[in-house]
Amino acid sequence: MERSAFLARVATATETAALPDVPPTDVRLPRLSSRHVRFVTEAEAVGCVVHEVDRADSARQLLLDIADQHGVSTFTAWDSQHLGVRGVAPFLSLAGLEPVTLPPGDDPVDWRASNTEVARAGLGITGALGGLAYSGSVLLQHGPGRPRTTSLLPEVHVALLDRSKLFSSLLSFSRRNRRVLEGSSNLVVVTGPSRTGDIEMVLTKGVHGPKHVHVVLLDF
Amino acid sequence: MSRNDLTDRIAVAIGNRPKAETIRSATTRIDGQRITSEEFPAMDDLRDATRHIRMEALKNLPELLDEFATNLERRGGAVFFASDAQEANAYVTRLAKAEGVGIVVKGKSMVTEEIDLNEALESEGIEVVETDLGEFIIQLDNDTPSHIIAPIIHKSKEDVGALFASKLGFEYTNVPEELNAAARAHLREKFLSADMGVTGCNLAIADSGTVCLVENEGNGRLTSSAPRIHVVVMGMERIVANFEQASTILSVLARSATGQSLGTYVNLVSGVGPETADGPEQLHVIIVDNGRSSILAGETAEILGCIRCGACLNTCPVFQTIGGHGYGAVYSGPIGSVVTPGLYGIDPWGELAHASTLCGACEDVCPVRLEIPRMLQHVRAQTVEAGTAPFWMRKGIAAYAKAATDQGRWEKAENRARFASAFLFSEDEWISSLPGPGRGWTKIRDFPKPAKQTFRQRWQERSDGT
Amino acid sequence: MKVQLFVTCLIDVLAPQVGEATVSSLEAAGCEVSFAAGQTCCGQPAYNAGFNREAAAMARHTIDVLLETDLPVVIPSGSCTDMIVHHYPELLADDEAYADKAKALASRARELTQFLVDDVEADQEVAAKGTVAYHPSCHGLRNLGISDQPDALLASSDRVDLGAETDVCCGFGGVFSVKRSDVSGELLTRKLDAIEASGAQTVCGGDLGCLMHLEGGARRRGLDVEFSHIAALLEPVVSEVSDE
Predict the structure, then answer these.
(1) In chain A, which residue's Cα lies nearest the Cα of B146?
(2) Is residue B212 located within the same domain as residue B335?
(3) Residue at B322 is within a domain
(4) Could you say which residues from 356 to 395 on chain B have a Cβ atom under 8 Å away from some Cβ of chain C?
């Protein structure tokens, strides 16, 4: 149906709609004494492993340790300038891990082939736009050099999050970043590993997305 | 569906004791997980705010939809306004054929069940693969979901193991982790070879042309990212003005549904952008009416404020007893008992509104504070106006109302009731068998025998005595 | 204080002793009780079944009878009180002659335990044989917020509760009990299971409909529990007098 005809029918309906007048409510979530403490608590509660580093080289070493811990030999990562830590890919490659990357943004790509490539990676490394304390979430804003599949196809996802970018909640984040959705065609709020309780309500992790999520808080 | 169909479905649900027990324990468990205001004090304010946001959105629905469509197009998406199921399915099928789509992967979407999109695509020779684990299992088994957010609440792990063994050729296992791993491997291949992904939409955000999709498994992310075409099917009422309003609703959605603070993945999809290879080339949003405007025009308009959290289903004692299949409709439980007659007609679906004690537990837990009992009563009134009330009820209520509007008639009626009861067998003042419609009572309970004197007779004596 | 009693159709016909107990309790609380003999039924069964016209007719009759005086109305039933307080004004909102009267009556109608505990702070308590459980009828609980009041009346009772099953509907639901006896029966069994598991020797409540449904079912299954309207169990509080 044509837009104006469709909307005209809806408009007619609203004329007789029995809808209540409900005054607005200004919601204020209780102030957190420490967003950092709450973030760690909530992220761990949903099954993330949270680390803290105060130097770039510790961050790089930690990534290698996480790869070893999970026995992965291939990795994929966002472009360096979006990770918050420089030199990650070279460091891991030198340590013997095989990098899997998509071609840079402007090159034409066979999309099916590149997804299959990324799916080979056992570890995906991203940065983060921010974190949410009340839910232990990380915000991933996607675009050139920041593919969605990095945090989606590998079994292990590590998010590098600048500790100063912790918001208390999604609500407060939205109030301070009202136009953030204009910045990218894909923004995902990730809260823990992929999960389901569909089969007899038994909680299982790693259904279609990652089974393991690590958040590395960068304090430098 | 006729009245008898509902009775038959209830008999099937109640008759299978193990399944009935599974449904009851699963729903009470999820109900117990729901976050209350004792646990999270901001819940009260959030629910008030959510009600305001949803009611305002419905009042301004044409403007919001117009704004959303304009912004979606600005950001490289395509919009289609589908007045009914047939138009929606025709658009998707036409698009799929034009683009040479062979495989469609699907995220969980109640509205696509409502319009029967899968059948429309499959009849054109397109393979449709449900990727939400519960929906995937339903599809494999040719079954229907029994709950709007926990589709296979009625299946055991043994059921699933047997199904995977026979339909997918996997070695039998009843261990959920192993079953999940099997599904992951099977479906990963489908994701990476699909040409089109179809999802629903939890909320559309008007001022940025954004589609918000909430899920736990990651199949929503994959469905909306891996294939080159992403199609979103959206009930026209699922919209808010801006990101702050969406965040308010997201703050109650998962807490009311499963007790999580947020669903694992909140996807905010805004058009088609300068992406690397892992984003779709095309985004199509299909806005569906399919009877919603006729609900909007009436007394139950506010039911369109629903955010599909499932809390009312989990807390409803009737749903806990008969499960989603008992209702026989895509939308079940308290919400479904108002929406279904609204979408598909009072006759026969108004009957669902009678399958309730009006206990009010649903309204108590609804994050939008929807006045479901009021609306259920309204649907009942509509069934009476439509003439579908059973004969004995119409006669009985008419006679009752006649007696109850006059003291003399009332006292005569009381005397008649007492007189008649003398003919019924009773043991220590309880009757074990009532005639006519009363049979419904005495099938399972004794009925108290009317007292020798009514209260008013005793009162009269007392007054006379003094 | 002068009040009038709305006794409810079920109590009038099936359990007049509950009406009398209600009067005694009100008198013990210092009230002078009158009874408008023209009263019949609040109309809730018709309303819940969707027969709005018939319900409105019964509402007008009830309003006429109870507004003969301006006395507050005390009602030993949460659901009847809910009907009068919340649904009379809605049903008669467009009735020029009755809209204001409906609101006036709604402002004067009080459920028994609300009246005793909140309005007159009666010094009464439940005296029951053995352990006692309270069944919170849905309309009273959810639409009138009745919970603290029975708690106060049961404060010194040997009380047991039904845990998570306490607030779950018993399955009576008025006409539902007959029209959907299939589901009603399931919920009845579920509630009786919970009562049995609690070890309660007496179950009391504020709504006769629920209690009839529960007791009728208990008899069939041979469950030996006393069911009683809370009005019939109320006694003046025995104050402990010091020996000194």
Answers:
(1) A198
(2) no
(3) yes
(4) 356-361, 363-364, 377, 379-384, 389-390, 393
Q: Is residue C158 part of a domain?
A: yes
Chain C residues close to B10, C-beta within 8 Å? 180, 182-183
B384·C179 Cβ contact <8 A: no
Residues B33 and B71 reside in one and the same domain: no
User: From the CA of B215, how many Å to the nearest CA of chain C?
Assistant: 29
CATH code (residue B112): 3.40.50.10420
The tens-digit pLDDT sequence of chain B (466 residues) is: 555 699 999 999 999 999 899 999 999 999 999 999 999 999 999 999 999 999 999 999 999 999 999 999 999 999 999 999 999 999 999 999 999 999 999 999 999 999 999 999 999 999 999 999 999 999 999 998 888 778 888 888 999 999 999 999 889 999 999 999 999 999 999 998 999 999 999 999 999 999 999 999 999 999 999 999 999 999 999 999 999 999 999 999 999 999 999 999 999 999 997 665 578 999 999 999 999 999 999 999 999 999 999 999 999 999 999 999 999 999 999 999 999 999 999 999 999 999 999 999 999 999 999 999 999 999 999 999 999 988 888 999 999 999 999 999 999 999 998 888 888 877 788 999 998 888 999 999 999 999 999 999 999 998 887 5
CA gap B34, B48 in Å, rounded: 17
Residues B231, B313 within the same domain: no
B437 in contact with C, Cβ within 8 Å: yes
Same domain, C150 and C77: no
Residues C99 and C75 in one domain: yes
Q: Tokens 């709450």 map to which residue?
A: A38
Give a yes or no: residue B411 inside a domain.
yes
CB contact under 8 A, B297 and A207: no
Complex ipTM:
0.96
Q: How far is A55 from chain B (nearest CA, A)?
A: 30
C-alpha distance from residue B53 to each of B11, B45, B62, B262, B306 (Å)? 40, 12, 15, 19, 11
Q: Which domain holds residue B427?
A: 406-465
User: For residue B431, which amino acid is it?
Assistant: I
Residues B429, B448, single domain; the answer is yes
| Residue B82 within any structural domain of the chain | yes
Structural domain span for residue C86:
2-117
Mutation site for B-interface testing, chosen from C169, C224, C227 by largest number of B Cβ within 10 Å = C169
What is the domain-level CATH number for residue C213?
Answer: 3.40.50
Q: At C71, which helix (H) or strand (E)?
A: none
Q: Residue B401: inside a domain, yes or no? A: no
Nearest to B322 among C52, C183, C217 (CB): C183
Chain C contact for B453 (CB, 8 A cutoff) = yes
From residue C163, give the alpha-carbon distance in Å to each of A172, C134, C159, C160, C192.
38, 11, 12, 9, 13
CB contact under 8 A, B444 and C220: yes
Do residues B309 and B261 share a domain? no
CA angle C236, C237, C238 (to 5 degrees): 110
Judged by DSSP in three states, C95 sits in coil
Q: Is A109 on the interface with B (CB under 8 A)?
A: yes
